[in-house]
Amino acid sequence: MRKTREELYSQQPIVLKMIENSFRKKRVAHAYILEGDKGTGKKDTSLFFAKAYFCVEPEDEFVPCNSCNNCRRIDSGNHPDLHVIEPDGLSIKKWQIQELQEEFSKTGVESNKKLYIIEHADRMTPNAANSLLKFLEEPNSQTVALLLTEQVHRMLDTILSRCQSLSFKPLSARILRNLLIQDKGVSQPLASLVSQVTNDLNDAYQLSQDEWFGQSRAIVLQLSEVLYSRPVDALFLIQDKWLSHFKEKTQLDLGLSLLLLLYRDLIQIQIGDEENVVYIDQIDELKQRALQTSSSRVSEQVAVILEAKQRLNTNMNPHLLMEQLVLKLQEG
């Protein structure tokens, strides 16, 4: 389902405002670079742009009606004057750009307006990039190019200089959490947690459905409970469950990140910022711990977890790393 203007505006207000101003002032550029991390809404925005460009009954000159023939055909992917290019294998080839040029040399099927979207534009071969450059140097007044990329630094400066840049910011944890709950039906506890781990909507959703991640959360909560109520059992839990679950270095780093978020929740509660607690379903238990632990002690525990994450990158033995971490968390 395509994003509405309101949804896109809530995610990328600066980008939407720039596009809106271009339409209102009738100064739509002949080429745009949409650059930003994966999952920040570049493709949805490019299709919204296309609908705004071709819509025959736009609302307020910018907002597509979503019901005219053009809008419906863009949604279904078969508008004759909208062309989308994706990498052929690992790269975009010269022949793909040449085919585009040949197609755009013809008269528009229904008007003189034409628009093309190039996904992963940074993956163009040198020959493809040079062919596109020639295309950009001699633009048709009603032809618009939207180049999407996650690696803008890999693109030719000569191409970048001929395009207006639209920079997409990473989605905030709050926006991502709400999208997961409202659009994907993810539970609030899981949505709150995965939105702290990634800022990509698709990655976050997949993570929320991953059984291994769900088990990770449970083990982190169990370790926290043991450290609080039965500290003598903590080393046994590390040996019995933690190390057998978080086997790879990246997995162990994620486990430490989840543990860190739990201790940061204690700080949030102590400073009266319960709205930003991540482990929201544990808030009653966390409130009790927060009352029984000094803020300085929690800050020290946060520091030793951060230290453990840094030491993990020095190829330290995971078993020894976790044993030392547990002992430090128990101190005081």
UniProtKB/TrEMBL annotation:
InterPro entries, alphabetized: DNA_pol_HolB (IPR004622), DNA_pol_III_delta_C (IPR015199), DNA_Rep/Repair_Clamp_Loader (IPR050238), P-loop_NTPase (IPR027417)
Enzyme Commission identifier(s): 2.7.7.7
Gene Ontology cellular component list: DNA polymerase III complex
Keywords from the named record: DNA replication, DNA-directed DNA polymerase, Nucleotidyltransferase, Transferase
Residues spanning the membrane: none
GO biological-process terms attached to the record: DNA-templated DNA replication
Sequence ranges assigned to domain DNA polymerase III delta subunit C-terminal in this UniProt record: 245-330
Single GO molecular function: DNA-directed DNA polymerase activity
Reactions listed under catalytic activity: DNA(n) + a 2'-deoxyribonucleoside 5'-triphosphate = DNA(n+1) + diphosphate
Family matches, as PANTHER family: DNA POLYMERASE III SUBUNIT DELTA, REPLICATION FACTOR C / DNA POLYMERASE III GAMMA-TAU SUBUNIT
Name the UniProt record assigns to this protein: DNA polymerase III subunit delta'
